[in-house]
Amino acid sequence: MINSPAAFREQLFMNFTTKFAIVATMTNGGDILDMLHAWFTPHGKAMVAATDCLLLTQYAHDSNQLHQYKSEGTKQHTLAINALRISLSKPEAVNDDDALSATDALGVCEAMGLGELLTGIPQGQDAWRQHSRGLCTLIKLRGPQCLSSPSAHVHGMVFNAMHAGLGDSITSRKAFPLSGPDWQQALESSCSGRVWCMYHMVCEFPGFLERMDNMPYSKAPQDEAMEVLTGLIDIQHKLQEWLFSWYQEMLGLPFHADSITSYPSFIADHGPLADQFPIVYSFPTFVEAIGMMGYWTMLLLVQEAIYDLSIRSYALEHTTPHQRDMFCANAYESADAICQCAPYYVSPKSASEEGQWQSAGGTLDLYSSMFWSVRWYEKHNDTSKLDFCKSVLEHRTLGQAAETTPVDDWWVLGKVFLLQRLVWRECIGPAVCALRRVRSVPDRCSMPASSSASLSSWEMLTPDSSVLLASHRRSESVMSDLAVGQSPDRPRPMMRATRSGPFLFHWTTEAEDI
Fold it and tell me: Domain coordinates of the chain in residue numbers?
């Protein structure tokens, strides 16, 4: 089929971009489509073969004709792998953008189900990991100085490596390859957008997970637990600051609370289980939805690790029962927030909204995040919420294997893998992130209060005493705040910082006393 390359490749590419056509109508949508064109621009023979393979995989998935493309898919995959091997065997392979781009494209291709295309058998998640690790290795070998390059392509490849590499490192609980001090300094100085800043903030998180797993073998597990717990809580606080900075750039609410009765089709599909979350969340567009879902998912991962560590025997002396209850409650709020988005994700209210979700892989974005909520509920034997999740997940989209393992999917489920990169990179936040330079813990503790929104100073755990880490709960619920609704004639909402939970802020209006 690809023997007539120009015509057929263009046909496949048009099919691919059509799936993102709704994006073109959004703010910055043209930039996203331009990025798609730039991303598919070949940098050599390996990149050509890899993108041909990706385009064919996408087409086979979308047309539900996997069986018809096994022969061609096998051929294209073999060509792509051989071309990549040749590119990697060259002396200049480390600095060859062709090898870098081909490795990245094949990783996306595996995430979109290439193994299943060729064999008809679910392949699990190992294939995309290998390409992700290869991409990170190539970038690491270039060294942090590669971020000084003016090449937008190189910066894009580093961003992609952080996107996929962090997913691999977190789910495998191994330190992220680009988390060393030199890389951290280079990444901080190169932060060019809000999501880049988030990735930089959590670079050390996988390393903390690895240290947690190795803690029983430590010569001083109590001291190790103290250091890791402090680091995890610092990451949680950075994430909350990240959300605060994003909120400040918004013209309106990023989401609002609705009654579940606003989604009659969801109630019809799930019956009494729909009442598990009487208050649910809706979003202005799927850009805010993907952004908030990504934030809540990452926050849940960190909060789950904090709680898991706090209840271990060698950490008990550093925390109080009240603190451990607070850690648990915070993680529960994040897990619940993900589930409270389900009606919005799976019950589009208009043809336009449905088109957005189809182009964005919207339900896949929900399912992959909900797997983390399921894992949390399983740990706590919360059968009622597990039944809710099971009911939602049983309505999986065509092509999703029911036995797909949890965890990995937030980063790698099909089109979400690529589209999240594009939407997050171009649509969420300004070109230059306000958090480009992350404040240190002492800086945050001494941060002055602002009249419109202030972050209360927080107390850190110290080696010689157990200090309240989570001694305060937010005094008012964001659900009750937002459930009131916003009418056009009401004052624009402002934000007041709260001290815990996944929302961080209590919404007020200019007429209220902050």
Answer: 1-123
